[in-house]
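Entry type: protein chain
Record version: 2
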Amino acid sequence: MSLVPGVPQQLAGGVRRLVAPNPGMMTGPGTNTYLLGDKAIAVIDPGPRIQSHLEAIRQVAGAAIRWILVTHTHPDHSPAARELAAETGAQLLGQPAPEGRHQDGTFKPGRVLHDGDVLQTDEFRLTALHTPGHASNHLCFLHDEHRLLFTGDHIINGSTVVIDPPDGNMRHYIDSLKRLLTVDLVSIAPGHGHLLTEPYKVIEWIIDHRLQRESRVVKALQEHSGLTSMALVPHAYADVDPDRYAWAERSLLAHLQKLADEGRATVSDGRWKLL
């Protein structure tokens, strides 16, 4: 199935996907909005505040929108939540935005969700899993009947996500991925891209990829000690297009901070060395 903005697709009983019209380098085909239920609707990640997408959500819902859940408060996932809630009277669920850049401070949940909290309706049951790493307030939502995990930007299809310090944390990210290996899953509904039907294979690949990158970072530090994070990028990310070095530097910094947290590296005046 192709991902076409504004065209709803049925993924499972009571689960539909609607892609927002915000394609780009960081968003792929666009942000995936999910609608759950048939008689009373829950919306997961209504996306950016684009009127055509808000109208599509209301039209596709076909019933009262009662709940709006947000995986995290990056600007391609949550800004539409406030307006949609004001128009429908739906309850907002998620975690407030942390301080820092690239955060949607307009998202004010009426119900703050913590790890293990449940949204129980007459049609489905969702369990919140706190998965920090990409964002400190990131939540995944597990559909208990379908064993379908809505992962926001914790896991996406077709790419790996940027871990952008200080709110992004590589150690927390890898730990959160490892935790998902213990959850009973059938498939993953990512925030961007197609449904993933081999969840454990995907999760293990991401963990392995991150640890391989960490090995490259360690090798770069061994061979080029005392450089800044930006100066290290060409050595640790030689496989990345130079046009993306600015974003690569953010994930590199996350790797460096993980090494520092583990007592394996140190920084002085912005210059990094192995311990």
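Comment: The two ends are 49 Å apart (CA to CA).
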